[in-house]
Amino acid sequence: MKGFSRSEIRFSLCGLNCLLCTMHLGGYCPGCGGGAGNQSCAKARCSMQHRGIQFCWECPEYPCSHYEGFDDADSFVPHSSRQQNIDESCKLGLKDYLSNLEEKRAILDELLYRYNDGRRKTLFAAAVYLLPLEDLRPVMAALNNVPEAASLPVRERALLAAGMLQEKAAVRGVSLKLNKKTKKE
Predict the structure, then answer these.
(1) What is the helix (H) or strand (E) element at residue 16, kind and residue range?
(2) Is 160 contained in some domain?
(3) Could you list the residue range(s) of the whole structural domain that residue 8 is in?
(4) pLDDT tens digits for 15-74?
(5) I want to staple 32 with a disulfide (CB 3.0 to 4.6 A). Which of 12, 28, 37, 150 is the partner?
């Protein structure tokens, strides 16, 4: 959006983790307020009208009508954990929250580099986005401790990684599928 910029482009003003978005990974979106390629957004427009607040929850009007139905469907990232992301960033402080987000991004990068068979990008991104580091770290350690993993065909490595992540998600009752918008009748 023209004229809209933010100093923090890894974590959106609405509470989404831009750093873990598949569009951000592919270079198609620079993140919220990151410059060219940034999409028009009602929340960004609102931020500009409210003297450039960096995060919506800093606004005395939050939550406002911009959030009606926002969490009902996902975009390229899960929206279901948006409020949890906000709560965690407020509890930990932005610096520590972003540090955790960077660690998650490193895990996602490794999954995509070593275990992606071309069909698992969305699943891996959703798993890293939705699962806490306390679940992701042991999965990565287990994957790195499978002696024959490096010699397995990429499809088998992908299935191994996907299976371990789905297992952790099932224990937590987390779905790793993005929720699509329902068509209006």
Answers:
(1) none
(2) yes
(3) 1-92
(4) 899 899 888 888 887 777 776 655 677 888 888 888 878 888 988 888 888 888 888 888
(5) 12
Pair 149, 143: CB distance under 8 Å: yes
Residue after which a domain boundary falls, among 92, 124, 154: 92
Cα distance from N-terminal residue to C-terminal residue, the chain: 31
Structure tokens at 27: 């270079």
The closest of 11, 20, 19 to 125, measured between CA atoms, is 20
For the entire predicted model, the pTM comes to: 0.89
Q: Is residue 184 a part of any domain in this protein?
A: no
Residue length of the chain: 185
The last residue of a domain, from among 37, 61, 92: 92
CB 68 within 8 A of CB 13: no
Dihedral sign of CA atoms 32, 36, 40, 43 in order: positive
